[in-house]
Amino acid sequence: MSVTEITLHQVLPKVFGGMEAEERIANSEVWLRDLSFRRGCRTLVSAESGTGKSSLLSFMFGRRSDYMGDIFMNGENVRKFSVEHWCGIRSTALSLLPQDLCLFPELTARENVEIKNRLTSHRSGKWIEDAFEMLEIGNRADTAAGKMSVGQQQRVAIIRALCQPFDFLMLDEPVSHLDNRNNSVVAALIEREAKECGAGVIVTSVGNHLDLDYKEVIKL
Questions:
Q1: Number of H helices, E strands in the chain
Q2: Are 40 and 198 in contact (CB under 8 A)?
Q3: What are phi and psi of 72, to 5 degrees?
Q4: What angle do CA 92, 215, 34 make, to 5 degrees?
Q5: Residue 1: what pLDDT?
Q6: Is the pTM of this model over 0.85?
Q7: In Å, how far are 16, 97, 121 from 136, measured between CA atoms?
Q8: 3-class DSSP state for residue 68?
Q9: What are phi and psi of 34, to 5 degrees?
Q10: pLDDT score, position 33
Q11: pLDDT digits (tens, 9 = 90+) for 62-120
Q12: CA-to-CA distance for 166 and 24, rounded, in angstroms?
């Protein structure tokens, strides 16, 4: 299942209902607008805390449906998608890195990645090993995720997010706990993998942006 375009039409989180005239909604370039993300894009969604950036990605990923308006994939309204259809899209076309990372704290960093990769069979063991080394956490691969720093956990979750095919990679504050050098290393890996498969990358940030060459910056 391939996704070439995601379109938002007058979308607004239901929790913001009745607040349409407020400045944060009226000035948003996302909410209550018509907006499209096309495969191959590099888009930064710049947001203040509490404006709904995590909700936006959850809506597009199908984790939540508590919004007004409509979201379309390849012209088809996602509200019509069955659970089976969503499962297919999430395994072949959409990859999400949530802000809360969703790692299993009792499992090692390597095990957290391998769980995903066993489901997809997308990456070789060498690719995973090389990714750990590239992101400078090779020496932490056998450490329980719960005993790693947040910045190290972010890098583990990024590797895991890349262990599947994708047309769009959605990243919610992926480098909020990384310094500039590690930010650049992570960005290089993401850009390499996204470019190889012609994927779009959609990143949210409240300040510390993933160091990509964005073609579009949108204020949420």
A1: 7, 9
A2: yes
A3: -120, 140
A4: 75
A5: 81
A6: yes
A7: 41, 19, 24
A8: strand
A9: -105, 120
A10: 97
A11: 999 999 999 999 999 999 999 999 999 999 999 999 999 999 999 999 999 999 999 99
A12: 32
Beta strands in 93-137 (DSSP E): 94-97
Q: Going along 39-136, which residue ranges are E strands?
A: 42-46, 67-73, 76-77, 94-97
Q: Which domains does the chain have, with CATH numbers?
A: 5-219 (3.40.50.300)
What DSSP designation does 22 have? S
Mean pLDDT for 208-218 is: 96
What lies within 8 Å, CB to CB, of 64 at 6+ separation is 55, 58
- pLDDT, residue 214, reads 98
Query: Amino acid identity of 209?
Result: H
DSSP string, 155-180: HHHHHHHTSS--SEEEEESTTTT--H
Laid out side by side, the sheet with 34-38 consists of 34-38, 5-13, 67-73, 76-77
Which residue has 């995601």 as its token pair? 6
**Tokens at residue 175, please?**
């480098």
Residues 185-201 pLDDT 10s: 999 999 999 999 999 99
Eight-state DSSP code of residue 53? H
